[in-house]
Amino acid sequence: MTNSRIAGFYKLTLDEKLDALAKASEGTPPDFNLLTAQQADKMVENVVATHNLPLGIGLNFKINGADRLIPMVIEEPSVVAGASFMAKLARKGGGFYATTSAPEMIGQMQVLDVADTHAAKMAIYEERDNLLAEADTIDPILKKLGGGARDLEVRIIENSPIGKFLVLHLIYDVRDAMGANAVNTACEKLAPRIETLTGGRVHLKILSNLSDRRMARVRCRIPVEALAFGKAPPQGEKQASPETKSPRPLRGRAEGGGFSGEQVRDGIIEAYAFAAADPYRAATHNKGIMNGVDAVVIATGNDWRAIEAGAHAYAARDGKYTSLSTWGKDDEGNLVGTLEMPMAVGIVGGATKVHPTAQAALKLMNVKTASELAEIIVSVGLAQNLAALRALATEGIQRGHMSLHARQVAIAAGAEGGMVDKVAAQMVSEKVVRIDRAEEILREITA
Ligand code: MEV
Question: What is the pLDDT of residue 199?
Fold first, then answer.
């Protein structure tokens, strides 16, 4: 059984971290082999090199009762640490509870030049069973695994720059694949039948990245006392504000120098309300979610552009862009968060199979189905969202960012080995994290 809690992990050397990971996952050390240029040359065109990014391990995650060690690929400091810390808080409330819908993708066919769109719509529905049976023969392996064509939906677009036309959705269960290839092939194969049935011309045949039939959902509960940090104000110090008669909103640190659990919880709920109501804030709020989501999507060799496109289109599904997550409190006053978003990821085929690091990532997580992977990804997204809101609602984001950012700046200034931490510490103490200052400090230390 995997144990996702590894005390002091961040203090270990690289080799010690790999050993600790092997012990915690009861396996051999994960083989995070890099993709070679030779392998990459078979994946895309005009390859001359590969590009590496840091891979860190998200710790403390308990998802549907099971511990998971989660590889996260990201260049931004604080994301892995933030998600791991929030997963630790969520554990106190039982961890993350995640579900997925059936792995159904939508393939779209744009049918133009249809004289009578209504009659064409009816004709397609009347042929539904035969069309689905034909689409089902297209991928026998998928069929054998329990996937295949599930349904057809016909939509009429009334107003477009070229006027009215018909759109056919083919709903296809792609099981553990991302599914783009299966769906695109099925749409291309069905197109001639659709043209005969409708008398029209099938123009585009391509999957939709708004994969809202393939959803992942997650919730977590953080006991309110677990949210307190620093030296919280003494009990009873909370005052009702005259307007709301509710606890006074956060106004900087309390005298004790910290925040009570209630203060942090209410600050997070207020921050969420901002994102729920304002698209300018929602974009940044959702970006924080995607910091966690993309990190796992990339680690597993999945198509992060598809996930991003689906997430943002889903966030605007009601005509106004809004938050993908929600934050509120339960009857006992605990913080409760949810996240729902499309999650079209696979564990077979494509880069997932070819990329050695993606293979190691799936192995470390002990993921057996694409649905399990989707559940892990939304859990990390929710944890990451919480990390950002907690920081923003209390001491601000810069403090946490500062020391890691300072290390990056020190490295950029040419610091190596033990010098990196020295230069970074000096900049943080001076509250000046800039490359010119890093270069100066480096010159002073090495003079
Ligand atoms: C930075 O990468 C992400 C945040 O801006 C997210 C947020 O504001 O919620 C901190």
Answer: 97
